[in-house]
Amino acid sequence: MKKRYLEDIRTGDRFRTADHAVTESEIIEYAKQYDPQPFHTDPAEAHNSVFGGLVASGWHTAAITMRLVALSEIRIAGGLIGLGVEELRWMRPVRPGDALHVEVEVLEVRPSHSHPDRGVVRIGNTTLNQRSEVVQTMVTALYVPRRG
After folding, report:
1. Which residue intervals of the chain are DSSP H helices?
2. pLDDT of the chain along its 148 residues, tens only?
3. Reduced to 3 states, what is the DSSP secondary structure of residue 94?
């Protein structure tokens, strides 16, 4: 796949990532290292939580989203260099057995006035499960180089 520069990206462009199947062991492993709470690490204790069962950390969902977008067809020249997350929402829990994918929409393409060799692309990421239920939404700004 060819790498995209600022000139190759248009507001309204859309991409869909591949799927990622979330496993119980993956949820527990991630949470033990980065979000050690019983509803992420202990299936028995998770049943007594507000979630009624084991759920992935929201940060795990965000990390899966990043991986899926990084491996998608968006392919920004120089890589996905984030300038910040403007909005991040976890809409529903991710559970073992869920298959996630991300739908990406380009919201804005703006050349930089102070750095003529680059621009900013704002993208909206919607992470969905196998039932097309939205589990996470995120708006991010990316640094994107200009051609030549």
Report:
1. 24-34, 38-41, 43-46, 58-70
2. 789 999 999 999 999 999 999 999 999 999 999 999 999 999 999 999 999 999 999 999 999 999 999 999 999 999 999 999 999 999 999 999 999 999 999 999 999 999 999 999 999 999 999 999 999 999 999 999 999 7
3. coil
For β-strands 99-111 and 14-16, DSSP reports them as antiparallel
Task: Report residue 59: phi and psi, to 5°.
Answer: -70, -30
Write out the two tokens for 74: 């968006």
Q: Distance between alpha carbon 126 and the CA centroid of its chain, in Å? A: 7
CA-based diameter of the chain, in Å? 58
What's the fold here for domain 6-145? Thiol Ester Dehydrase; Chain A (3.10.129)
What single letter denotes the amino acid at residue 30? Y
